Amino acid sequence: MSDMLEIRWHGRGGQGVKTAALLLADVAFNTGKYVQGFPEYGPERMGAPVTAYNRICDEVIRDHSNIYEPDFVVVVDETLLKSVNVIKGLKPEGAILVNTDQGPEKIAAKLKGYAGKVLTIDARKISEELLGAYFPNMPMLAGVIKMSRVMDEQVFLDNMNISLKHKFASKPQMITGNMKVLERSLGEVQGL
Amino acid sequence: MIKDRLSGNEAVALAMKSMNMDVMAAFPITPSTEIPQYFSQFVADGATETIFVPVESEHSAMSACIGAQAAGARSCTATSSCGLALMNEVLSVASSLRLPITMCCVTRALTGPINIHNDHSDAMGVRDCGWIQLYAENAQEAYDNYIMAVRIAEDPKALLPVMVCQDGFITSHAVENIILLAEDEIRKFAGFYEPENYLFNSREKVAYGPYDSPVYFMEHKRQQAQAMIDSLEVINAVSQSFGDLTGRYYDLLEAYRAEDADRLLVVLGSTAGTAKQVVDELRKAGEKVGLIKIRAFRPFPVQALVQALGNAKIVAVLDKSEGMSANGGPLFADVCAALGGRGPRLVNYIYGLGGRDVRPLHIKEVFEHLKDDIEGKTPAAKTAANYRYLAVRE
Predict the structure, then answer these.
(1) How many contiguous H segments (helices) and E segments (strands) does chain A have?
(2) ipTM of the assembly?
(3) Quick one: B240 and B262 in the same domain?
């Protein structure tokens, strides 16, 4: 299963981390892949650290354990860098994407010991400017596509448009805003 | 054939909806809550004609199912952990009344200490209640087993309630690829529920649940036990016709690369998937390993198991519940009883309690131990210990 892509998400309860992981599974499924998207449940409350996982593969996925040596890590909440060892097991040939207004060099200094690529994106700025509120999961989802190159960017956008039309059938104003967030986020990943 | 991606809970809710159940009665409990949640959405959307009965406890949920099914309706529910424990009293009522109710048990640890995560202590706690128990490896199997469960339960040779078990969170909350059937195909497969006896039959009146004195009680139990024995054949027949419809054939158990294996595992549920990957890896390195996944735990597939274990030198039975018997877990006890002292050496591992993650390296560790056992390398003190723990600090 060497072509298996494994992603670990770190965030806080209420930030839409599980939703983002499930949406990633959705779009990967739509491009013909075998997928898994699952959260690691703990005490459920707003603000508590949460972890979610994705496996994406061309073959059937049978492993039902959590992911310990991910190819990519996504940190949706920067404050977790202090309390959670987000680079644990992360492959050196992989990469980590952090939601921050600081550049990759500053974040890399906080991730002492990680030899792989450090990427950043200012998800707060993008979300607040385009949606008028802080929903970090959509910029991070676009950032994961940029980081992992798991699929063509246009294919990703086309599929997300379909997913969002389905998800926000009763709130069509959410579709255009989120699509703008995704498009802009693809161009704002730093450190590539 | 409809390709989709769903969680195990969504898949089961969809199977229930597709069969157009007459009644669903449920009370929410993690991690099964999503099933009645999705289902009540279907009801609210008018996507099904099922009557959804929101009750005030799991005891009431099962009691409502019993009442509905006895009246002549096809009924279903879903629960987990303490919810299943609270149903315990009425579970035996359902099975002894020979009411073919179906239920999804999303397995979770029984409380003490409080824990919401997966193991099999809830389902194992009711294994003697006279319900057929089918276990699923993934969302696809949970969905398929549920569709088959209705036909198995209602077959006149069985007439027993069926519990479709899937692993809490691991299967219930993970989104995976799945192949669905069209609703009309499912309805055609499930057929129309026409019980021979039912309370709303004004032409032929029957009583359900009267007192049974010692004069007949034992004969009734004997008949109920015979139904469980006969249900082995029913499960096989229904699985065969499901395979003919879908191309997905299921047996009472699945023997995976077991034929020439000298070391075998016996497992239930999602662990089978993780273990299959390990078996493939070790096979590539020339090691003769394999596994048996028990699909039907009740009725216990004695003949199929004896045949499948025949050529192994040693077998590790993995129990995701601690039977507190001081003699190993419940699956181990059944495997021992099936072999009756003949065949390969059996050892037991208690593992994965309360959500302890089951990793490929743990499965490898078991196969390593088994190799040491065969080669006589196990330290003397441990050789006699057939009752072991996996991935525990002590």
Answers:
(1) 7, 6
(2) 0.94
(3) no
* Residues B216 and B258 placed together within one structural domain of the fold: no
Kindly report, residue by residue over B234-245, the tens digit of the pLDDT.
999 999 999 999
Residue B394 lies in a domain: no
The tokens describing B387, both together, are: 């009752």
AA identity, residue A87: I
Cβ under 8 Å to A: B residues 111-130: 116-117
Dist CA B118 CA B122 (whole Å): 10
Domain co-membership, B240 together with B222: yes
**B134-144 pLDDT, tens digit each:** 999 999 999 99
Chain A residues close to B176, C-beta within 8 Å: 35-36, 61
CATH of the domain at B296: 3.40.50.920
Q: Are the Cβ atoms of B171 and A64 closer than 8 angstroms?
A: yes
Mutation test of the interface with chain A: which of B176, B178, B267, B357, choosing the one with the most A Cβ atoms within 10 A? B176
Range name among A102-106, B80-84, B309-313, B374-378 with the lowest pLDDT average: B374-378
Backbone angles phi, psi at B393, to 5 degrees: -90, 125
In a domain, A83, yes or no: yes
- B132 membership: H or E segment, kind and range: strand B132-135
